[in-house]
Structure prediction request, 847 residues.
Amino acid sequence: MNSASDNLIAQYRRVHSSRISGGSEVFDPTVIYNKDIESNQRAILVEWMNSTVPSLNFPVKASSEQLRTCLIDGTVLLQILNRLRPGFSYKEGSSRSENVKKFLACMDELGILKFELSDLETGSMKNVMDCLSTLRAQFAYLGGNLSPTSGITRFGSPRGDASSNGHFSPTFGEEKRKFSPEAKSQQALEPSAASMHRVGHKFHEVFQLKQGRFSDLSAAKISEMMKSNSLDNSPTQSLLSVVNGILDESIERKSYEIPHRVACLLRKVVQEIERRISTQAEHLRTQNNLFKAREEKYQSRIRVLEALASGTGEERGAVKDQLQHLKIEKSKMEGEKRLEEEHVAKLIIEREQRDLDLSTLKQELELVKETHELRHLQMEAEVKGAKAGLEERLKELELLLEDSRNQVKVLSAYSESKSKTFNEKEDIFKGFVEFQFGALQGMRFSCKSIKQEILEVQKSYTEEFNGLEVKLKALIDATGDYHFVVAENRRMFNELQELKGNIRVYCRIRPFLPGQVAKQTAVEYIGENGEVAVVNPSKQGKDRRRNFKFNKVFGPDSTQAEVYSDTQPLIRSVLDGFSVCIFAYGQTGSGKTYTMTGPNGASEEDWGVNYRALNDLFKISLSRGGSFNYEIQVQMVEIYNEQVHDLLLIDGSQKKYPFISDASMHPVTSTSDVLELMDIGLRNRAVGATSMNERSSRSHSVVSIHVRGKDLHSGAALHGNLHLVDLAGSERVDRSEATGDRLREAQHINRSLSALGDVIFALAQKNSHVPYRNSKLTQLLQSSLGGQAKTLMFVQLNPDVSSYSETISTLKFAERVSGVELGAARSSKEGRDARELMDQVSFTDVI
Ligand SMILES: Nc1ncnc2c1ncn2[C@@H]1O[C@H](COP(=O)(O)OP(=O)(O)OP(=O)(O)O)[C@@H](O)[C@H]1O
Prediction:
């Protein structure tokens, strides 16, 4: 025999003797289990127990003995049951055995492979752990819904039938018959290949596994298989192929989770294999003892025979024969023994191989189990996580619910207050409606009375209207004469102007300027009727004083408005189709620009004749809007050195024209248009002035306004002009002193002013020839000097005695223009009639 078989036999002997002597130790194949696997199983179990009974808090790395100490009084087992089966109440008994028995009874009820009471007290904890693992697995897989009839029983259970399912009973079904001590050893120990095949085939047929899979087996089917004696009747090879099949399928599916029912089957198969191996070991031992007994028997026989051989010859012969016979028998037996030993050795080798296979299978199974446990733990952790998440979510939802409740409370309070407010408002509104209704009733009554009144008023209005119609008819008849009256007025106004003289001269004396306080004036007297007297302080006698008389003299205190008021009637005649020319004459600094334009940046109060005249033109044209339609255009030029410069070129360029008619014409519709244009003109003149050294004093500036009017009743057209001329300074420049440009300028100014004087004089003399063409200025003013044209000259005087000679020169020029005028003779006609006519004209314009 080799050492492996010796070990096996020794182990068997130890276990067997222990059993015979009444010990509770049973043969347990798990003794060859890997210690690590067992401790793993224990750790998993402890963790499960801790999670099931949290108060337990048992150390995970507890030893087998510690586990026993924990479980031995049975209370923890009952606590586990109470947690797993909350519907059942497992109460603690009076003794530990009573507690454990209650637990084992529950295992019976659940059909779980249980352990013995002795296992828990002194035996192997493996059975206890297996039982608890099965319980844990069942509740993990089935969630505690176990059928009390699941009927899973354990081999060797005291409840089981010892004759058929007993742990050590050689229950191989039909093999049992062959394994009697009397049976032939070959036949008993080595079933033929054919019989193995037959039994395996039968096993498969029983389990109907030819086509199907282990995992497809239903719990009922497995239960049936485990209840029947199928496993007992199956050859060991078939059982191993079942285990292999399950593991192969598990590997093939790449799933290490073995359904519980298959795991139970697997466990039963493995236990069956273990049982058979131990049975075989026992049988071998029996055989061995048998052979030893036989050997001893034959040895004693040989010894007897040898003693006999030393006796008589006959006896010796007979004994020799017998001895020979015995020797033959002995050699036969020895052959048989050798064969038997060879067979035993073979069996032991096979056993070792099977042990090895079994161990591998168990390891694989444990590995699968471990993986499954890990997966299970993982899933449990996931479930815990999910549970925690759900609990958290539940808390959040509860908080939300609380919030919503609070909001509902707030809203209901708000809605209550709102409803209260609405009720109050409703009351107010009702009161208001009632009040309004009352007011409406009152209004209805008033309305009725008003209606009545209206009817009466309507009636009186109709009567009045009829009366008005009669009056209006008379008025329309009177209006027929209106245009005739207007034309007549115009004619009378012109006659009045003619009576006053078509050339009029107003003298204006400017005040001393600030800073000229100590100056002496040359103007001695200013009369109310146009008289002015100047004195020469260097002369005495009758030559000291010179008297002049003009149409009007304005003293230094005269305002711009006063000066203009006597000019206004001429402006009106422009709109009647006349040409009017107003110019200012005088030495430099005498106030020509002040009279014509006003001071720099003048307010409306300081406006000069230009602005006031244009403003009036628009006012009068608007007031005549019902009878006339006017178009007004403006030109602004400067005559310097006999050249015409357009001052209204928007780009500010200094364009020169040979003729005044070439200058740009700008339509205006309002005073602001005119103001804008005048500003442009003044700016352009200022540009010229800075570049040409006070050129304004040595150039004539002319603002020309062209009026085209249409009589809306008669359709007649009229055309009037207004020229507003600010002449160059009239001072005489001494030829001997002036040279170059100054001399040229002086010559041009003298020539043009003389030409103006000649024209005016010729007109006053009613000469047949009027020398208009002698200067650009007279050419420009031709249409405004002569014929129906009216001319007004402002003679500007500087009161300072230092300007006396220039003052006399200016006054003489003005006298020449106005003094010879027939106006002096005609002035006598100015009387009541003329004043009445003027008043009439003023009245007409107002209309
Ligand atoms: N009636 C007046 N009241 C107050 N100040 C006046 C009056 N007339 C003229 N002046 C002032 O006298 C100064 C000279 O007047 P203005 O420039 O009008 O003279 P001018 O004759 O136009 O001179 P020029 O020929 O150089 O253009 C200006 O400062 C002006 O404001």
Summary: The mean pLDDT is 75.
